[in-house]
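look at this fold:
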Amino acid sequence: MAVYSAADAAPLLQQEYRDRRLIPFLGAGFSKPLHLPDWRELIGWMAERLKIEPELFLLHGRYEQLAEYFQLAGHDHLHQLVYEMTRRFDSEEAARTRQSSRMHQALASLDWRTIYTTNYDSHVEGALQDAKKQVAVLASFDDFQLRREPGTCEVIKFHGTLARPDTIILTESSFFQRIALESPVDQRLRADLLSHSFLFIGYSFNDLNIRYIWYRMHQLRHQGQASAQRAPARRCYFATFGVGPLQPKLLDQWNIDVIQLDPNPKNREASVAGLLESIR
């Protein structure tokens, strides 16, 4: 079990990066500097259309359950929600903010071959394009079949992309369908787990979706080690702003070490950017 400071983690991440074995896995927190609407705002938008008091609607389930209810309430409702998310997440204002985001610039300055993200918005791939990098967005079986130029960074949209609404993992049913981890992006994850370490940024300890992914990643890695004389499993890294006494032990069972960043809300963007900049 290890809890690293950003300075202590830097040499480990640098070595993994030099060996082409480090892959970022980015969550919603990575888009925080862009001031995108959070789920509370989107749930409020859904409640208004259902003529339900937003605060009351929030009491009746997690966001994926409420999105499922919204879908069931009208045949076109989910399409409307995806349209609203696209309008808000991929706005021109958000794109301009991204271009001055130190976090996004730090990410795009590195020579990645693969980036995973559960974010629906286009700002991870947008940051790479801002830096004149070749990008391929992979969210469906068809995407994996397309030809890519040498040196292209593959941005794997683990929960789908707003550009392809049919790929979105948004409602409770769609999350349940993903539990087996058998889709094309899951098959790619299985392969990458064999020889890479992941750096998770933008997630909460309490996010059940990412915790399930961590659990399944550990299972898949364990299954991939065929012989009884197993080599030590590759470690992954979770960058966070607050570490309690229990979580590092829980994550250690899944071969995940914790990187403690500056918990001051005013310094969080700079702290993440500094971690990424230290990799070079």
In short: The longest helix spans residues 208-224. The CA atoms of residues 4 and 22 lie 17 Å apart. The radius of gyration is 19 Å.
